[in-house]
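Ligand-bound model needed. S-adenosylmethionine.
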Amino acid sequence: MPPKLVLGMNQHEKDVENFYSKGARRVVKEGENFKHFSEGFISFGYWEPGDTYVDAAKRLLRFFIDNSGIKKAGRILNVACGYGAESFAYFKKFRPGELIGIDITQAHVDYANWKAKELGVAKKVKFVHGDAVALDFPDASFSHILGIEGPAHFNTREKFFKSAGRVLKKKGELLLTDIILGEKFRKWNPVHQIVLRAGAKGWVVPIINGIKEKEYVKQLEGAGFEIVFLKRIGDKVFPGYAGHFTEEKRKENRKRMSFFAELGLTKIGRMLGYLYRKGFIEYIYVKARKK
Ligand SMILES: C[S@@+](CC[C@H](N)C(=O)[O-])C[C@H]1O[C@@H](n2cnc3c(N)ncnc32)[C@H](O)[C@@H]1O
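Prediction:
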């Protein structure tokens, strides 16, 4: 389905939506029902030996929830919620009065709203098409903001931190997984710069979001947050993700996508593994509290 664009959306957001809408064409509609190739997950996963992609994606979500320290939530905003797979798990576990998912890809939002109806939770779990950077919600209207792997795309991530700080209540919590630069990345090195620019272009990420942990923490603090924890889990994410593009998996993927899409996906996956081994990228799980 062609992407419906949010009024006033800029070129970057249109590009992100286009990027993810290509993947959304692999979601099959059978009558009134959708069928998703990976149970609605599109994260990189948290891998243990023998995992399939869906095992790893579920494991990442479980890791996120089990380590969140959240007992109960008042009202949750789920940023970059994708197809809503994580949203329904947050709703079940944290029993908020309401959960709103926001995503820039219309096809994701349509699927998630359909799924909410299927699960009988549509009164309390709603999905909106929009930009997480420009949050159109009143000040202090959420107890928690949660999200897996979206912020690297945001234009910019730092502006999103400020928006998140505005819509969170005092002592409200922001929990994210995110991709940042690794400690071995050298900004002054032209080869590293070429790699960064190529990676950012391929995954539709603003170059300005290419920061290391220290700067990440500084940006969160600058937006009025204190850090509760920051866990580096790249070793559980990138090698497993890169390694799962076996010949068998590639054959399976070719049934669902074009020759070039499959090649592109495999290349990105393997490239991530390489960049992590070189220390150029890191995957983090961060929890911050609004002061
Ligand atoms: C890697 S996917 C992760 C999706 C989901 N969290 C998951 O783990 O399955 C990144 C998601 O971020 C969304 N996204 C990117 N930029 C966004 C923005 N500015 N505002 C809201 N969502 C955005 C994309 O549409 C996509 O669904």
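The domain at 11-179+215-233+282-290 is CATH 3.40.50.150 (Rossmann fold).
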